[in-house]
Amino acid sequence: MERGDGIDEETIKKLPPGVRLSWGIVKQPSRGPKGELSIKKIVDAAIAIADRDGLAAVSMSRVAQSLGFTTMSLYRYVTSKEDLLVLMQDAICDIPIPPEEAGKPWRQEIREYVWACIGVFREHPWYGDIPIMSVPLTPGNLQVVDWMLRIMRDFPLNDFEKMSFLLLISSYSRACGLIARDMDRAIREGGSPEAFNGASYGEALRQLVKPERFPNLHPIVMSGTYTDEADNPIADDLDFGLERILDGIEHYLKQKTSGQ
């Protein structure tokens, strides 16, 4: 059955309930005082709890209590905690996307994409605690995907190559985001950058890491490189890794252009 907006309802029903809610194609309840409760208010309250106390603190009852409603009132809008998590993920992925800028180098655009993604993990530390269950399906997530595809729009690549590069860049963003998040958390809980980077433990490791057992690691530890005690000629490790990924993409694009 097709609705007036051209959406086939039977096809849409195959999507998970939380995904359907994120697209606003689920009929909202008409009972109750108008305007007192909405999906947005529920999601915003859940995000506030997660930002403050972590993902484990989010429950339908806790969210309802924070809003001054009964738990059953929430279930009229969001049918399960799983659906609520989907909506929370989608909401924080709805980030500002820079407008297109003629002549802007694509490498710079990808850097902006990566650091914007890392920012999501740092601003909402619980985001990385939700397991990936499928390809992105919600509009907030898909807008970020569309941003990366916009950057690659004129690349001499087929769609599968573009999606593979999207996965590569997004995976690196996620890995870096989790590291940055964990460092923020460690420092917030009383740790120090030196402890997180290993500098506080360098002397101990130099006594424990023997060349007989760790022949390849030993010289790295002894030089202070492993524990970030030596001068670092490559500056930031995450930036360095990203630049090497971009070098690889650039090399591949040149090969494609030259027909090799």
UniProtKB/TrEMBL annotation:
<keyword id="KW-0804">Transcription</keyword>
<dbReference type="Pfam" id="PF02909">
    <property type="entry name" value="TetR_C_1"/>
</dbReference>
<dbReference type="InterPro" id="IPR050109">
    <property type="entry name" value="HTH-type_TetR-like_transc_reg"/>
</dbReference>
<keyword id="KW-0238">DNA-binding</keyword>
<keyword id="KW-0805">Transcription regulation</keyword>
<protein>
    <submittedName>
        <fullName>TetR/AcrR family transcriptional regulator</fullName>
    </submittedName>
</protein>
<dbReference type="InterPro" id="IPR009057">
    <property type="entry name" value="Homeodomain-like_sf"/>
</dbReference>
<dbReference type="InterPro" id="IPR004111">
    <property type="entry name" value="Repressor_TetR_C"/>
</dbReference>
<dbReference type="GO" id="GO:0003700">
    <property type="term" value="F:DNA-binding transcription factor activity"/>
</dbReference>
<dbReference type="GO" id="GO:0000976">
    <property type="term" value="F:transcription cis-regulatory region binding"/>
</dbReference>
<dbReference type="InterPro" id="IPR001647">
    <property type="entry name" value="HTH_TetR"/>
</dbReference>
<dbReference type="GO" id="GO:0045892">
    <property type="term" value="P:negative regulation of DNA-templated transcription"/>
</dbReference>
<feature type="DNA-binding region" description="H-T-H motif">
    <location>
        <begin position="59"/>
        <end position="78"/>
    </location>
</feature>
<feature type="domain" description="HTH tetR-type">
    <location>
        <begin position="36"/>
        <end position="96"/>
    </location>
</feature>
<dbReference type="InterPro" id="IPR036271">
    <property type="entry name" value="Tet_transcr_reg_TetR-rel_C_sf"/>
</dbReference>
<dbReference type="Pfam" id="PF00440">
    <property type="entry name" value="TetR_N"/>
</dbReference>
